[in-house]
Structures are given as C-alpha cells and as structure tokens.
Design a protein that fits this description.
This protein is about 30% helix and about 25% strand. By secondary structure, it is of the alpha+beta class. The protein is elongated, with a radius of gyration of 25 Å. About 45% of the residues are buried.
Length: about 400
C-alpha cells in the first residue's frame, strides 16, 4: 500500500513511521528544508515534548476536542510516547508541572529520534516539496499534486500541515484550504497560547516576572478563566505561562474584543487577612511617605507602579492615609484590573485554535468522513490544549492513530 503524508512536523513524522512500521510504502512530503522545523523552537528550543500527568488531569487541560481525542490518546498516551522516545535514544526528564523535556535540553534530540524512526521504518522523504492540490476520483483520494505540477499517486493521503501559528515554520493554512476545497468545514482559526496586548503601558515593568498570582477573566459577569501561577510583563503588555493559558480562553470566548482581567497579587491571603497586614505595615511605618507603602509587599518596580495607580499622593505620610484610601490599596492588591486589547497574533502564537471540524473526522482512525482515504492529524484539526506539553502529545497521538489505521482497508 502506498501512503503519502503531507507535512513533516510532529504528527506527520509519527504517522509516517507508524504506517511504514506496519508494512506500508510511505512517502513523506515536507515543503521546508528540514523536518520538524516547529519542534526546534518549541519550549524555547528545549521542546516540551509531552506532559507526564495522569490521563484524567491530562484531559482537563484539553480545551477543544476532548471527546474526539479520547480514542487517539488511548492508542498512544503520554507514557507510551515517553517510552518510545527513550527506546529510540532520546532520554527524558520531568520538570515542574509534569512538563517533559529531553535531558540534553535540546529539541534536536527529539527530531533526531524521530528521524531514526523514519529511517528504520524505510520512509521515503522529499524535502522542498509543497502540495498544492489533492487528486480526488469518485469521492476517493488517489494522490496529490505538488507545487511543481507533479502528480503523485497514493492509496491513502494524510494531511498533517499544521495550523497558522509560527508561519515562518511553514504553517500557512495549506491543509485548511485543501480541506475546504473538498467539502470540509474549517472552524475559524485564532491564535492561542500567546502574549496579550494591554491598554495599560507596562514598558516600565518589562521583564518583571510575578510568581504565585491568580488571574481571572470575566464575560458578562460569568467567569471564563481562572488560573494560578506565573506571569510576565513585556513591552506590549503581559505574557508568561499563566497568560498563555488565558489567551486560549480569550480566543475561545471573546477573540477580538477588549476585555478586563483581574489579578490577585496576594492569593494566599483573604481580603480580611491582607487588610490586617496593611494596618500593621501602616503602624510600623507611620511616618514614612506613602510612596514606600508597597515596599514590603511587592517588587520595587511594581510597588512604584502601584503607588501611581492608587491615585494617592506619593509624598503623603502613611499615617495620613484614610480608610477609603487603604481600601483602594487593598483592591489593587487583590483585584487589580488590567484591560486586554488583543492577542499577539499568529506570528507569536504557539498554537492555532480552530481547524478542520472534528465531526467530519473518524476519531479512531483520523479518516475523513467526507473523502474516502483522506486523513487528518495534528494542528490542522480543531483541537487544542493548554500550555505544558499537551499540544505536542495531541500531535503524537493523532499522528499515531492515523498511521496505524491508514494501512487498513
């Protein structure tokens, strides 16, 4: 059986080596000069290859496509993926939040293991080869047509062309366009797991990281996101793990709208407990100026920002601060409101939210329900998860499921 896999990313490589390992003749087409180009930049070049948490927790981190992914995750789960990499010469380590990385901290070790798997399975690889169309006869796929006009025949074809994020790696929506051309619905694509631009100017706080804070997003009085962890101030607004996750919920619920999010800078303390601490701080520093009121509570740069944001005169003596002004301080610490204007877009988004509608794809085999012999895997599908290695696992699992079933009639 001749199989063509379009796209040499995580899902495509896993599908190709799986199908070839089961006896198929596999041709892997990649438009870039090398395979796995996006893998090289994931996890800041370290490649957060999966997450080692238990599967019930894993599923809680899937934002779109949870039920659809149940079958593929059961065919190749996170522990099995880790075992596969170890057996193929890539040793792994588990870090905070069950994030899994190669021991070397080099993403190239992941691609090297996959390429060894491709070579061992006998996969034929063609680089610099872009697919511009599919060959369909009587609602069945028979091959693809390349950008150069070559017609390549196949019994089955897998589209693993990625989404729209990091377009410099080749993710330019080719698979979505081909899917739409042949009767598939493509859900609106939005950038996810990305930094957020804010109305407020945080350039003076650029590079400042806050740990152990709580962020909430509300939509018409209904909370659509709550997270605890680390965030970062940037020249354009806010980022960091907590905000990357927030951006996925923003994309899902209110993409393109200006929205407020609230930050609890002291989540370990209730309002009453924090108010008592403020009173104690005020008593101990009664004769100091108000501009020093946040010194023991916040990093120096953020303390200075909060003095300004409070609207209280910096030179005012702390013992002259009124109860109403203290309550204003309390609100800033427990419920600091930030206005989000937009996300950073596909150029900086780690993943794409949206893609080929999963209702039109068999969840066990990854075969299209619209065109016989056409399969989908990875980010081209309308599936996504939060940050922490979950999205790469979705690529491995859907790629494996497609590769395993493409050799079956």
């Amino acid at each position: 059986m001749q199989i063509i896999v379009v796209g040499g990313g995580a899902a495509g490589m896993m599908a190709a080596l799986t199908a070839a390992g089961k006896g198929a003749q596999v041709l892997l087409l990649e438009k870039n000069e090398k395979l796995g180009k996006k893998i090289y930049i994931t996890g800041k070049g370290r490649c957060n290859v999966t997450n080692a948490c238990e599967m019930d927790e894993f599923e809680e981190n899937i934002l779109n496509g949870n039920k659809f992914l149940f079958s593929s995750l059961s065919q190749l789960d996170n522990k099995q993926m880790m075992d596969w990499l170890e057996k193929n010469g890539c040793h792994l380590k588990i870090e905070r939040g069950n994030r899994v990385f190669p021991v070397s901290d080099h993403a190239s070790d992941i691609t090297a293991a996959l390429q060894r798997g491709l070579q061992k399975a006998g996969v034929t690889i063609k680089l610099h080869t872009e697919v511009k169309d599919l060959c369909i006869e009587e609602n069945k796929i028979v091959g693809v047509i390349t950008q150069k006009g070559d017609k390549l025949l196949a019994d089955k074809v897998l589209l693993a062309t990625g989404g729209l994020s990091y377009p410099t790696t080749g993710s330019t929506g080719t698979g979505h366009n081909l899917a739409k051309r042949y009767g598939h619905t493509v859900m609106k694509c939005k950038p996810a797991l990305t930094g957020m631009e804010t109305i407020e100017d945080f350039s003076g706080l650029q590079g400042l990281s806050l740990k152990n804070v709580r962020v909430k997003g509300h939509l018409v009085k209904k909370k659509y996101y709550e997270g605890f962890g680390e965030m970062l101030f940037t020249h354009y607004g806010i980022s960091g793990p907590l905000i990357l996750s927030y951006s996925s919920y923003y994309a899902k619920h209110c993409y393109g709208e200006e929205k407020e999010l609230s930050i609890d800078l002291k989540p370990a303390l209730s309002e009453e407990q924090l108010d008592k601490r403020l009173l104690r701080e005020f008593e101990e520093n009664a004769n100091k100026q108000f501009k020093h009121a946040f010194d023991s509570l916040l990093p120096s740069r953020l303390a200075a920002y909060m003095v300004s944001a409070s609207g209280i005169a910096p030179e005012k003596k702390i013992n002259e601060v009124t109860k109403e002004e203290r309550k204003r301080m309390l609100s800033l610490l427990k419920n600091w409101t930030i206005h989000v204007s937009d996300s950073r877009g596909f150029a900086e988004a780690i993943i794409t939210q949206g893609g080929v509608q999963v209702k039109q794809v068999n969840p066990t085999t990854m075969e299209s329900k619209v065109i016989s012999g056409l399969y989908f895997a990875g980010e081209v599908l309308d599936i996504d998860a939060l940050t922490g290695g979950f999205n790469l696992q979705l690529a491995w699992s859907t790629g494996y499921a497609a590769g395993a079933h493409m050799i079956e009639d």
